[in-house]
Amino acid sequence: MQTTTSCVRRNSGPRCWAVLLGLAACPLAAAAADTPAGETIPQNPVLQDTFRFTVGGFLASTSTIARLDTSTGGIGVDVNFEDALGLDDRKLVGEGAMYWRFARRWHFEADYFGITRRASRTISQDIQWGDETFTAGTDVNSSFRISDLRAAVGYSIFRSADKEVGLGLGLHTAGIRARVEAAGVGGEAGDMTAPLPVANFYGNFALTNTWALSTRFDWLSLAYDNYTGEIRSVALDFIWQPFRHAGFGFGYHSLLTNLGVDKTDWKGQVRLTYQGPSAYANFSF
After folding, report:
1. Does 21 reside within a domain?
2. Which of the residues in the chain have pLDDT under 70?
3. Using alpha carbons only, how large is the chain's radius of gyration in Å?
4. Residue 57 maps to which CATH number?
Protein backbone atom coordinates (compact mmCIF):
# COMPACT_ATOMS: atom_id res chain seq x y z
CA MET A 1 0.00 0.00 0.00
CA GLN A 2 2.92 2.35 0.68
CA THR A 3 4.22 1.83 -2.87
CA THR A 4 0.76 2.43 -4.35
CA THR A 5 0.16 5.61 -2.34
CA SER A 6 3.57 7.11 -3.07
CA CYS A 7 3.14 6.31 -6.76
CA VAL A 8 -0.15 8.21 -6.94
CA ARG A 9 1.26 11.14 -4.95
CA ARG A 10 3.98 11.52 -7.54
CA ASN A 11 1.26 11.52 -10.24
CA SER A 12 3.80 9.85 -12.53
CA GLY A 13 1.43 9.13 -15.39
CA PRO A 14 0.06 6.06 -17.18
CA ARG A 15 2.74 3.68 -15.89
CA CYS A 16 1.88 4.51 -12.26
CA TRP A 17 -1.83 3.98 -12.83
CA ALA A 18 -1.16 0.72 -14.68
CA VAL A 19 0.68 -0.53 -11.58
CA LEU A 20 -2.22 0.54 -9.36
CA LEU A 21 -4.79 -1.22 -11.54
CA GLY A 22 -2.58 -4.30 -11.72
CA LEU A 23 -2.42 -4.50 -7.93
CA ALA A 24 -6.17 -4.13 -7.66
CA ALA A 25 -7.03 -6.54 -10.46
CA CYS A 26 -4.63 -9.39 -9.63
CA PRO A 27 -6.93 -11.04 -7.03
CA LEU A 28 -9.82 -10.75 -9.47
CA ALA A 29 -7.87 -12.35 -12.29
CA ALA A 30 -6.65 -15.16 -10.05
CA ALA A 31 -10.18 -15.79 -8.88
CA ALA A 32 -11.54 -16.12 -12.39
CA ALA A 33 -10.54 -19.79 -12.54
CA ASP A 34 -13.24 -22.38 -11.85
CA THR A 35 -13.81 -23.26 -8.19
CA PRO A 36 -12.22 -26.67 -7.43
CA ALA A 37 -14.64 -29.55 -7.05
CA GLY A 38 -15.97 -29.85 -3.54
CA GLU A 39 -14.99 -26.30 -2.50
CA THR A 40 -17.82 -24.12 -1.21
CA ILE A 41 -18.43 -20.93 -3.17
CA PRO A 42 -18.55 -17.87 -0.84
CA GLN A 43 -21.97 -16.28 -0.49
CA ASN A 44 -20.97 -12.73 0.34
CA PRO A 45 -23.56 -9.92 0.67
CA VAL A 46 -21.40 -7.62 -1.49
CA LEU A 47 -22.21 -9.78 -4.51
CA GLN A 48 -25.61 -11.09 -3.40
CA ASP A 49 -27.61 -8.17 -1.98
CA THR A 50 -29.66 -5.73 -4.06
CA PHE A 51 -28.91 -2.55 -2.07
CA ARG A 52 -25.79 -1.36 -0.25
CA PHE A 53 -25.21 1.89 1.65
CA THR A 54 -22.01 3.21 3.21
CA VAL A 55 -21.21 6.19 5.43
CA GLY A 56 -17.78 7.17 6.71
CA GLY A 57 -14.83 9.24 5.61
CA PHE A 58 -11.24 9.37 4.45
CA LEU A 59 -8.14 11.20 5.62
CA ALA A 60 -7.40 13.25 2.53
CA SER A 61 -3.94 14.43 1.59
CA THR A 62 -4.56 17.46 -0.61
CA SER A 63 -2.75 19.42 -3.29
CA THR A 64 -4.51 22.46 -4.74
CA ILE A 65 -3.10 24.66 -7.50
CA ALA A 66 -5.45 27.12 -9.20
CA ARG A 67 -5.31 30.11 -11.54
CA LEU A 68 -7.96 32.81 -11.95
CA ASP A 69 -7.42 34.97 -15.04
CA THR A 70 -8.23 38.67 -15.19
CA SER A 71 -11.57 40.02 -16.39
CA THR A 72 -9.79 41.71 -19.34
CA GLY A 73 -8.48 38.38 -20.68
CA GLY A 74 -5.02 38.46 -19.12
CA ILE A 75 -3.50 35.15 -18.02
CA GLY A 76 -3.13 34.87 -14.26
CA VAL A 77 -0.52 32.94 -12.28
CA ASP A 78 -0.72 29.56 -10.57
CA VAL A 79 -1.39 29.79 -6.82
CA ASN A 80 -0.59 26.89 -4.50
CA PHE A 81 -3.29 27.17 -1.84
CA GLU A 82 -1.43 24.98 0.66
CA ASP A 83 2.11 26.35 0.35
CA ALA A 84 1.39 30.01 -0.45
CA LEU A 85 -1.87 30.58 1.43
CA GLY A 86 -1.64 28.11 4.30
CA LEU A 87 -4.59 25.77 3.71
CA ASP A 88 -4.34 22.44 5.54
CA ASP A 89 -2.78 19.77 3.33
CA ARG A 90 -4.49 16.94 5.25
CA LYS A 91 -8.06 16.81 6.51
CA LEU A 92 -10.71 14.26 7.47
CA VAL A 93 -13.43 14.25 4.80
CA GLY A 94 -16.92 12.78 5.22
CA GLU A 95 -18.33 10.66 2.40
CA GLY A 96 -21.35 8.49 1.67
CA ALA A 97 -22.38 6.08 -1.08
CA MET A 98 -25.19 3.87 -2.33
CA TYR A 99 -25.28 0.85 -4.66
CA TRP A 100 -28.31 -0.68 -6.40
CA ARG A 101 -28.08 -3.96 -8.30
CA PHE A 102 -31.19 -3.67 -10.46
CA ALA A 103 -30.41 -6.69 -12.69
CA ARG A 104 -28.05 -9.67 -12.55
CA ARG A 105 -25.32 -7.90 -14.56
CA TRP A 106 -26.39 -4.26 -14.16
CA HIS A 107 -26.01 -1.84 -11.27
CA PHE A 108 -26.27 1.86 -10.43
CA GLU A 109 -24.07 3.57 -7.84
CA ALA A 110 -23.61 7.06 -6.45
CA ASP A 111 -21.26 8.62 -3.91
CA TYR A 112 -20.55 12.07 -2.52
CA PHE A 113 -17.92 13.95 -0.55
CA GLY A 114 -17.39 17.61 0.26
CA ILE A 115 -14.58 19.54 1.93
CA THR A 116 -14.11 23.22 2.83
CA ARG A 117 -10.79 24.64 4.03
CA ARG A 118 -10.00 28.15 5.24
CA ALA A 119 -6.79 29.88 6.27
CA SER A 120 -5.31 33.24 7.21
CA ARG A 121 -1.66 33.95 6.52
CA THR A 122 0.80 36.80 6.06
CA ILE A 123 2.03 35.95 2.60
CA SER A 124 5.74 35.93 1.76
CA GLN A 125 5.38 36.56 -1.98
CA ASP A 126 3.22 38.57 -4.35
CA ILE A 127 0.06 36.73 -5.40
CA GLN A 128 -2.22 37.62 -8.28
CA TRP A 129 -5.74 36.24 -8.13
CA GLY A 130 -8.04 37.47 -10.87
CA ASP A 131 -7.94 41.27 -10.97
CA GLU A 132 -6.46 41.54 -7.46
CA THR A 133 -2.75 41.60 -6.59
CA PHE A 134 -1.70 40.85 -3.00
CA THR A 135 1.83 41.98 -2.18
CA ALA A 136 4.24 40.20 0.13
CA GLY A 137 3.60 41.03 3.79
CA THR A 138 -0.20 41.32 3.35
CA ASP A 139 -2.51 39.43 5.72
CA VAL A 140 -4.59 37.31 3.34
CA ASN A 141 -7.71 35.22 4.02
CA SER A 142 -8.43 32.33 1.67
CA SER A 143 -10.96 29.54 1.32
CA PHE A 144 -11.36 26.60 -1.02
CA ARG A 145 -14.35 24.28 -1.27
CA ILE A 146 -14.87 21.24 -3.45
CA SER A 147 -17.77 18.81 -3.54
CA ASP A 148 -17.99 15.79 -5.82
CA LEU A 149 -21.18 13.88 -6.62
CA ARG A 150 -20.39 10.78 -8.65
CA ALA A 151 -23.02 8.61 -10.36
CA ALA A 152 -22.38 5.63 -12.65
CA VAL A 153 -24.08 2.70 -14.36
CA GLY A 154 -22.06 -0.50 -14.76
CA TYR A 155 -22.38 -3.76 -16.69
CA SER A 156 -20.60 -6.92 -15.49
CA ILE A 157 -18.85 -8.54 -18.45
CA PHE A 158 -17.95 -11.49 -16.22
CA ARG A 159 -20.31 -12.45 -13.39
CA SER A 160 -20.56 -15.42 -11.05
CA ALA A 161 -21.78 -16.01 -7.50
CA ASP A 162 -18.51 -14.83 -5.95
CA LYS A 163 -16.85 -12.52 -8.48
CA GLU A 164 -17.54 -9.94 -11.18
CA VAL A 165 -15.58 -7.63 -13.48
CA GLY A 166 -17.20 -4.95 -15.59
CA LEU A 167 -17.23 -1.61 -17.37
CA GLY A 168 -19.43 1.43 -16.96
CA LEU A 169 -20.07 5.07 -17.68
CA GLY A 170 -20.33 7.75 -15.04
CA LEU A 171 -20.45 11.45 -14.27
CA HIS A 172 -18.48 13.39 -11.64
CA THR A 173 -20.29 16.66 -10.88
CA ALA A 174 -17.64 18.76 -9.15
CA GLY A 175 -18.53 22.00 -7.42
CA ILE A 176 -15.49 24.23 -6.81
CA ARG A 177 -15.27 27.66 -5.17
CA ALA A 178 -12.05 29.50 -4.30
CA ARG A 179 -11.74 32.95 -2.72
CA VAL A 180 -8.76 35.14 -1.80
CA GLU A 181 -9.21 38.46 0.02
CA ALA A 182 -7.41 40.98 2.23
CA ALA A 183 -8.45 44.05 4.22
CA GLY A 184 -7.83 47.24 2.28
CA VAL A 185 -7.26 45.35 -0.96
CA GLY A 186 -10.53 43.56 -1.63
CA GLY A 187 -11.16 40.03 -2.76
CA GLU A 188 -12.25 37.88 -5.63
CA ALA A 189 -13.76 34.42 -6.00
CA GLY A 190 -13.85 31.79 -8.70
CA ASP A 191 -16.93 29.56 -8.75
CA MET A 192 -17.93 26.68 -11.03
CA THR A 193 -19.94 23.49 -11.29
CA ALA A 194 -18.31 21.03 -13.66
CA PRO A 195 -20.15 17.92 -14.93
CA LEU A 196 -17.29 15.62 -15.97
CA PRO A 197 -18.09 12.33 -17.76
CA VAL A 198 -15.84 9.30 -17.11
CA ALA A 199 -15.33 5.72 -18.25
CA ASN A 200 -15.32 3.17 -15.44
CA PHE A 201 -13.64 -0.17 -14.68
CA TYR A 202 -14.68 -2.16 -11.61
CA GLY A 203 -14.36 -5.54 -9.93
CA ASN A 204 -15.86 -7.23 -6.87
CA PHE A 205 -14.48 -10.45 -5.40
CA ALA A 206 -15.85 -12.48 -2.46
CA LEU A 207 -12.82 -13.70 -0.49
CA THR A 208 -14.99 -15.49 2.09
CA ASN A 209 -18.60 -15.28 3.27
CA THR A 210 -17.68 -12.18 5.32
CA TRP A 211 -14.69 -10.63 3.49
CA ALA A 212 -14.76 -9.03 0.03
CA LEU A 213 -12.50 -6.93 -2.18
CA SER A 214 -13.95 -4.09 -4.26
CA THR A 215 -12.01 -1.98 -6.76
CA ARG A 216 -12.93 0.85 -9.14
CA PHE A 217 -11.06 3.14 -11.53
CA ASP A 218 -12.63 6.16 -13.32
CA TRP A 219 -10.79 8.03 -16.06
CA LEU A 220 -11.36 10.42 -18.92
CA SER A 221 -9.31 12.94 -20.86
CA LEU A 222 -11.81 15.51 -22.08
CA ALA A 223 -12.31 18.60 -24.19
CA TYR A 224 -15.93 19.68 -24.27
CA ASP A 225 -18.08 22.70 -23.56
CA ASN A 226 -16.02 25.03 -21.30
CA TYR A 227 -13.57 22.40 -19.99
CA THR A 228 -10.36 20.75 -21.13
CA GLY A 229 -8.20 18.36 -19.16
CA GLU A 230 -8.35 15.07 -17.32
CA ILE A 231 -10.03 13.42 -14.34
CA ARG A 232 -9.04 10.20 -12.53
CA SER A 233 -10.63 8.53 -9.53
CA VAL A 234 -9.64 5.34 -7.68
CA ALA A 235 -11.28 3.31 -4.92
CA LEU A 236 -9.75 0.13 -3.50
CA ASP A 237 -11.67 -1.35 -0.53
CA PHE A 238 -11.72 -4.40 1.71
CA ILE A 239 -15.18 -5.01 3.16
CA TRP A 240 -15.73 -7.09 6.32
CA GLN A 241 -19.37 -7.98 6.99
CA PRO A 242 -19.62 -10.13 10.15
CA PHE A 243 -23.36 -9.44 10.39
CA ARG A 244 -25.86 -10.35 7.72
CA HIS A 245 -26.86 -6.76 6.95
CA ALA A 246 -24.04 -4.68 8.42
CA GLY A 247 -20.27 -4.49 8.38
CA PHE A 248 -17.23 -2.28 7.89
CA GLY A 249 -14.94 -1.24 5.09
CA PHE A 250 -11.47 0.23 4.79
CA GLY A 251 -9.27 1.08 1.85
CA TYR A 252 -7.87 3.89 -0.29
CA HIS A 253 -9.78 6.61 -2.21
CA SER A 254 -8.53 9.35 -4.52
CA LEU A 255 -9.68 12.04 -6.93
CA LEU A 256 -7.31 13.83 -9.31
CA THR A 257 -8.41 16.57 -11.71
CA ASN A 258 -6.55 18.86 -14.07
CA LEU A 259 -8.99 21.24 -15.76
CA GLY A 260 -8.75 24.27 -17.96
CA VAL A 261 -11.91 26.37 -17.43
CA ASP A 262 -13.45 29.07 -19.61
CA LYS A 263 -16.63 30.25 -17.88
CA THR A 264 -18.05 33.57 -16.75
CA ASP A 265 -17.44 32.81 -13.06
CA TRP A 266 -14.06 31.15 -13.58
CA LYS A 267 -11.53 31.53 -16.36
CA GLY A 268 -8.29 29.76 -15.63
CA GLN A 269 -6.93 26.43 -14.43
CA VAL A 270 -7.55 24.02 -11.54
CA ARG A 271 -5.31 21.11 -10.55
CA LEU A 272 -6.52 19.11 -7.55
CA THR A 273 -5.47 15.95 -5.73
CA TYR A 274 -7.47 14.42 -2.88
CA GLN A 275 -6.30 10.99 -1.71
CA GLY A 276 -5.93 8.91 1.41
CA PRO A 277 -7.06 5.98 3.57
CA SER A 278 -10.78 5.48 4.11
CA ALA A 279 -13.01 3.76 6.68
CA TYR A 280 -16.79 3.41 6.77
CA ALA A 281 -19.81 1.45 7.96
CA ASN A 282 -21.52 -0.78 5.40
CA PHE A 283 -25.22 -1.73 5.30
CA SER A 284 -26.84 -4.05 2.74
CA PHE A 285 -30.03 -5.98 2.10
Report:
1. no
2. 1-39
3. 21
4. 2.40.128.90
